[in-house]
């Protein structure tokens, strides 16, 4: 379990990344950390890419219907304008943001802000997704979560796409994706 370093005293500001396959619990873990920050009376702002309208236009919603209000954005630079006077910034579905996001996160951390990012580390082809590898390289703290493989019950790092669509971005749920372990991802039809 992630234990938050203290924001009090000294040089503040750091980057946390929560990554893993679909259904691994990234959004639940992001919501948990953000709710704890609010319990600690910290000022929290939460952002998601405008493209992610799957469950709700404004809320971040987990597969189990946990939710927290967020601001949908067109680009990552907007975070610098909107995150004034805050202690903690949460960002969900980071894989969909533009190439400026790692730089934006650095700037936020330099302002003394705790930045918590959740995103898919791999796309359906098993390739690094969007800016996630750069965010992982810059992160001070990384949490890699695992789903359960729907084929064999092992831990799952891969998001298997059940359709033939080849576009990298294809929003979806259980209807389109299932979490699989390495063996079932590469060896099973
Ligand atoms: N195969 C699976 N493995 C793990 N969790 C699953 C699976 N299928 C459904 N879930 C549900 O998904 C929840 C995680 O949802 P969520 O936090 O939205 O994940 P993520 O953001 O990583 O896609 C779990 O708590 C569990 O109830
Ligand atoms: C693997 C993969 C996923 N997506 C989409 C599908 C969902 O809308 C999100 C991931 O959501 P989650 O919170 O991690 O469950 O991303 C995609 O567009 N392309 C892919 O390759
Ligand atoms: Zn498996």
Describe the structure.
Belongs to the thymidine kinase family. It catalyses: thymidine + ATP = dTMP + ADP + H(+). This is Thymidine kinase. Its main location: cytoplasm. Its EC number is 2.7.1.21. By secondary structure, this protein is of the alpha/beta class. The protein has a domain at about 15-145: P-loop containing nucleotide triphosphate hydrolases (Rossmann fold). It has helices at about 25-40, 80, 100-110, 130-140, 180-185, and strands spanning about 15-20, 45-50, 60, 65-70, 70-75, 90, 115-120, 140-145, 145-150, 155, 160, 175-180. The strands form 4 sheets. A 6-stranded parallel beta sheet has the order 5-2-6-7-1-8, with helices on both faces. Helix 3 links the parallel strand 6 and strand 7. The longest helix has 14 residues, at about 25-40. It is globular, with a radius of gyration of 16 Å. The model has no long low-confidence stretch (mean pLDDT about 95). It binds adenosine-5'-diphosphate, the ligand Cc1cn([C@H]2C[C@H](O)[C@@H](COP(=O)(O)O)O2)c(=O)[nH]c1=O and zinc ion. The ligand Cc1cn([C@H]2C[C@H](O)[C@@H](COP(=O)(O)O)O2)c(=O)[nH]c1=O binds near residues 26, 123 and 172. Ligand LXEULUCI binds near residues 123, 168 and 171.
